[in-house]
Each structure stands twice: as C-alpha cells, then as structure tokens.
Design a protein that fits this description.
alpha/beta; about 500 residues; 15 strands; Alkaline Phosphatase, subunit A; four-stranded antiparallel β-sheet
C-alpha cells in the first residue's frame, strides 16, 4: 500500500479486502463465515493487584466475576500501558500506536484550560477499521481523547456514545449522549450501573439485528472520586469505599458475561478486560512499586484478562510481555481486517499469547512515556529506567484534593481514599536515571542492577536511542494558572 494513502483511502481498501471468513483458527486466522464480536472493558485507574490472580496471591477486594472470566479464559501477567495516566493510554489501545505517534502525550482537561489536546482525525481507531467490515460500535464511558465537538467519539468511527468526555473529577462533570449534554451535574454513584445497562442494551440490539459489534466500555471507576450505587455501598464500613466500587465494577463484568450467554453469543465474542494505568490511593499494585503517575511497575503494569468460549483455553496464563498497543492489531487480525500499512503500527498480533502459555512476546522491547519523554524500556526480563521514575508524592491525609467532591458540581461520597492508603511498594534503591531491574526476579524493583550488568544497560539503551530518535518535540499545552469551576450544561468550556 502507498504510504501516502489518506485515512479515507485506507478505509475504502479495508472494505474491499475483508475476507468472507471471520473466526480465528489455532493460528489466529479466520475459518467460518460468522463475524466475531468484540467487547473491550477498560477500567480507569484499576491496579494490578485489584483483582485476584495478579501480583499477590489474594486480592484485597472481592472480584468473583473477573475471577470467573480468568478461569474461563486467559490472563496475561506482564501487560503494559504506554503511560501511567489516562488519555495517552486510551489513544494507544484504540490505534495500536505509541503516544508519540498519535500526538496524545498529555491529558485534555477543561477545568485546566487544556482543550486542544485530542486524537487527530488522521488516526484510525478500532471502531473505524471495523466499520468498513459491517460492524456496529459504541463507546460507553470515559472518552478523554478530545472534548470539543470535532473530536467526539462519533467523529472517530463510533456509531454511538454515552458517557463523560474526560475524567469524572474534571469540571464540568456532565453526561453526554452522542453530541448532547443530557445530565448536569452527574450523580456519580449511578455511573457504573447506567454504563452497564447502556452496554447491555447495545448488545441486545445488535443481537436482534444479527449485526456484529464492537463495544468499547471505558468505565469511570475506580478513578476518583470513588462512587458506588446503593446496592454496593456499605455505609457501616466507610473506609472501604474502594472495595464497594470494585465489587460493583466486577458485577458489571458479570452482567455482560451473563448477557452473552443468555443471547448465545459467548462462543462468538472476544471479551477483553484491562486498565488504563496503575492505581490511585486506595487501590493495590499487587506488590509492585509506585502508583498512577509514576513509571515504576505499579504505574505501568495492569491486569489483562481475555475470554472467548471455545477459542481461548480455560485457565491459561502467559507471562510474556505485551501491552495495550497490541489490542488494535489483534482485533483486526481476528476480524479479518487488514492492519493499516500507511503508518507505523507499534502493536503486534498477540493471539498466540492468548492461546498458548508457552508463546513468547512478539516484541523485542516495549517502551513507556512520561509526558513528552520516552522514559523506560522493557526487554525480556529486563527493564531500564532511562529517566528517573520519581519519588512518591509528598501528601499527608490532610491533603485537600482540588478536584474532590463538593456536593454541587462533583457529586460523590466525601469519604474518598486518603494518601495514607498508598497503593504500592515504597522502599528500594532510590530513584535516579539509568536504573536497571530484573523484573522476573524483582518485580517490586527494589535492587538496581545497572552496575552489575553494564552490557544489558548498553543493549537496552541502544533500543531506546533507536526509538527516541522517532519522538518529536512536543510543546506543553497552554493551561490556566489554577483549576476553574467551569459551568456545565452544554459543550462549551469557558469559565
């Protein structure tokens, strides 16, 4: 394909090249004439240890439905996001490209005046690629790839949208349906339940029309402010709001799995579950160092579960490194849709990892960013922090969150997790540039081995140099000097 083809040209060719056979065989290729469905559940700030079977032997939270999903499918235990925060991670999972290629390296935020960060129209999302193959698609939940009209989900390939366009602690917190604000302010305790119901309705509608579908469900929780519906909220134990939120999120997954079984779709639907980055206060990294916002393992490594009855072996566990960059090419390969050739796709087809515990990573290296900078390299068992991963935030329990619930514009319980509920490991060798860790032997990144293995440092730094040469210089977006209480009610963001 001509590398100068536009996105429109590419999508036209996709429609002409779709195979008539659509389900993967043991090699990941298609073998029957019924198109598979795809459900991508993307939790917000869910820690590696927030569900059972990742990190520590037992999760501090109850997740029976996610445990069932893992028992019936596959777990990838070394699964990475490209940044330890929201928007860039979302751009990557939908495009298969590192943030420095999409240009989304910062978070849009209307209350900070950051309105010009968005996923460019030149990017091709999963929804756009599948549309030409006859798929219906919906995004239910957090978008965070541009909140002005020209960048909303239906301009990026989705047929429908319902959710909050950015983080649920960024004012104005308003519920949007397609391109219209339908609720402001939002009672956040209702979000998980309402998102789940909208997702179930979409599945039923597609089943009635016998239409293949892509459901992208980027939940609001457990991003702060934490909120759970009355059925899950436990007022007698106010210090476990995070646990309430996780139980409701787990319930949501169970509802979707049950709906697929009820409609006899579970044999033809790939369900993926993961998180956009590591946890905030109250969550668990499962024994990893750091938290959201830092490039320690606790900020970058997330749980990944894949379930497809009859196609993915039950109870499979694969420890090979992979990441959210791999979702795009894997879904397209299964759907029989050509991966774009007119751009760099950093992700690889990881169907072999989902069907064999012995399959090896298709990547020589995985990279991570912090803002506009490439900062880490993971290759095999080794991880090199070219730039310092940073120290824990200096906050006490008297810290006042400027985006905390106020009972007027951000409506959620006041009993939010405090900094004392730090989610990850704090100890270990002090952070600095050029730290090397054996992640297999030392997943908590306690002992820097850079002096003992200069050859490994040299090899990983060479991989870093080759990739960092492709990273353009980014200007930091203009922002307000302090957060503003932007008024809601419509899609305008003047204070």
């Amino acid at each position: 394909m001509d590398r100068n083809l536009s996105r429109r040209d590419f999508l036209g060719l996709v429609g002409a090249s779709i195979a008539a056979v659509m389900l993967p065989n043991s090699a990941g290729r298609c073998s029957t004439n019924k198109k598979p469905n795809f459900i991508l559940i993307f939790a917000d700030d869910l820690g590696y240890g927030d569900i059972s079977g990742f990190g520590l032997k037992k999760s501090p939270f109850e997740t029976p439905n996610l445990d069932r999903m893992a028992a019936e499918g596959a777990k990838l235990t070394n699964f990475y996001v490209p940044t330890p925060y929201c928007a860039p991670s979302r751009a990557t999972i939908l495009t298969g490209r590192y943030p420095f290629r999409t240009g989304v390296v910062f978070n849009p935020a209307p209350d900070a005046g950051i309105n010009d960060v968005a996923l460019p129209h030149s990017e091709i999302t999963i929804a756009e690629a599948l549309k030409e193959a006859g798929y219906s698609s919906i995004c239910v939940g957090k978008w965070h790839l541009g909140h002005t009209l020209q960048y909303l989900p239906r301009r990026q390939g989705f047929d429908e949208y319902y959710g909050i366009l950015y983080s649920n602690d960024m004012r104005p917190v308003q519920l949007v349906e397609n391109e219209k604000v339908v609720e402001y302010p939002v009672i956040q305790a209702t979000l998980t339940r309402r998102y789940t119901q909208r997702a179930l309705d979409f599945i039923e509608r597609c089943a009635k029309r016998n239409r293949p579908f892509f459901l992208y469900l980027p939940h609001a929780m457990p991003h702060k402010p934490l909120a759970a519906s009355e059925d899950f909220y436990t007022p007698d134990t106010p210090d476990d709001l995070y646990a309430d939120v996780i139980r409701e999120l787990d319930w949501s997954v169970g509802q979707i799995l049950d709906k697929l079984k009820q409609l006899r779709l579970d044999n033809n639907t790939l369900v993926l579950f993961c998180s956009d980055n590591g946890p905030w206060y109250g969550g668990s990294t499962g024994g990893l160092r750091g938290m959201k916002g830092k490039t320690w393992e606790g900020g970058l490594r997330v749980p990944m579960i894949a379930r497809w009855t009859g196609k993915i072996p039950a109870g499979l566990v694969n420890d090979s490194p992979a990441g959210t960059i791999d979702v795009f090419p894997t879904v397209l390969k299964i759907a029989g849709v050509n991966v774009p050739r007119n751009r760099v796709i950093d992700g690889k087809d990881i169907w072999p990892l989902l069907t064999s515990a012995r399959a090896k990573s298709p990547h020589e290296a995985l990279f991570a960013m912090q803002g506009p900078n490439l900062v880490t390299v993971r290759s095999g068992k080794w991880k090199l922090h070219v730039r310092s991963p940073g120290r824990p935030p200096k906050r006490g329990d008297d810290w006042v969150d400027p985006r905390g619930p106020d009972g007027v514009t951000i409506i959620a319980p006041y009993e939010q997790a405090r900094p004392s509920a730090y989610p990850g490991i704090i100890g270990g060798d002090g952070p600095k540039d050029m730290m090397l860790f054996d992640i297999e032997a030392d997943p908590a990144e306690q002992r820097d081995l850079s002096k003992q293995h200069p050859d490994v440092v040299k090899r990983l730094k060479a991989l870093y140099d080759k990739t960092v040469a492709q990273v353009p210089k980014f200007k930091r977006p203009k922002r307000f000097k302090k957060l503003r209480r932007i008024k809601g009610g419509d899609l305008s963001y003047s204070s």
